[in-house]
Write a structure and sequence with these properties.
The protein is α/β, with parallel strands linked by helices and 278 residues long. It has one domain: Nucleoside phosphorylase domain (Rossmann fold, 3-Layer(aba) Sandwich). It is built from 8 helices and 9 strands. A 5-stranded mixed beta barrel has the order 5-8-7-6-9. β7, α6 and β8 form a beta-alpha-beta unit. It is globular, with a radius of gyration of 17 Å. The structure holds hypoxanthine (HPA). The site of hypoxanthine has 13 residues, from β5, β8 and β9.
Length: 278
């Protein structure tokens, strides 16, 4: 299989989805590790397993259901990904961004991305929600950019601007809604690493020094892909564990999944509130 993706591949995936649903989603929502339950209350909905969609990257890890839920969310037509693929699973970065390109061809204009992340900011506690106001794309700086390969002009230009990866209006709206709901989310910078190993204490001290608040292994590829086509993006990190800056604690996938249970209602309230007011 070519590592580049083509418009034909994307449109084959769009055609397959259209054979299961007539809905025309305007909002895309990507649910990260342990956060998939947010889609359970969407009904009526058309549900499509990723395995039925050509070229679509499958999620191979626990905590990712691997299906699309297409239905109305707070009165708005939405396409929800219950789980995503990551670079560390063996997918090229353009393939990690593939689902977003399918959404774009289907007419999605706003992308909401969520993830589970480690809190690098020492003030953060497990169970905190962080609204992402910027990211450090260490993974892309290292050469792994989702736009690697021939530019597909139908989406955007060769050298896309990245001065506002996260939409200021959506961020303000999210803060307003959180306040109304009595929630006090954090706001900060997310970094995407390749994974799958968690960070060493020195890695974490480095990340802290360069201005990272939360660390994870996702989201940035999808955000860069979305911004290439000028989608408006809202990003939320669910802090699942405190980063281990002094090497005194151990990070596990189980604690990441466990934190999801506390995080889902908070993130659900903020996301639904924002979508309702779009
Ligand atoms: N590091 C990287 N990715 C993560 C973490 C972490 O501590 N927690 C959840 N995803």
């Amino acid at each position: 299989m070519s590592e580049f993706i083509t418009l034909e591949m994307i449109d084959e995936a769009v055609a397959a989805i259209h054979s299961y649903t007539q809905r025309k989603p305007k909002i895309g929502l990507i649910l990260g590790t342990g956060l998939g339950d947010m889609a359970e209350s969407v009904s009526p909905a058309d549900i499509i397993h990723y395995s039925k969609i050509p070229h679509w990257p499958q999620s191979t890890i626990q905590g990712h259901k691997g299906r699309l839920v297409i239905g109305d969310l707070e009165g708005q037509p939405a396409l929800i990904m219950q789980g995503r693929a990551h670079y560390y699973e063996g997918y090229s970065m353009p393939i990690v961004g593939f689902p977003v390109r399918v959404m774009i061809r289907m007419g999605v204009k706003v992308l909401v991305v969520t993830n589970a992340a480690g809190g690098v900011n020492p003030d953060y506690e497990p169970g905190d929600v962080m609204l992402i106001n910027d990211h450090i794309s260490l993974i892309a700086m290292g050469g792994l950019n989702p736009l690697w390969g021939p530019n597909i002009d139908e989406f955007g230009e060769r050298f896309p601007d990245m001065s506002q990866p996260y939409d200021q209006e959506l961020l303000s709206l999210a803060k307003e809604i959180a306040k109304e709901k009595g929630l006090s989310p954090r706001e900060g910078v997310y970094v995407c690493l390749a994974g799958p190993s968690f960070e060493s204490p020195a890695d974490l001290r480095f990340l802290h020094t360069i201005g990272v608040d939360a660390v994870g292994m996702s989201t940035v590829p999808e955000v860069i892909t979305a911004r290439h086509a000028k989608l408006r993006v809202l990003g939320l990190s669910g802090i699942s564990n405190k980063a281990n800056l002094d090497g005194s604690t151990v990070t596990t996938h189980e604690e990441v999944l466990e934190a999801g249970k506390i995080l889902v209602p908070k993130m659900d309230a903020i996301i639904r509130g924002v979508i309702r007011r779009l």
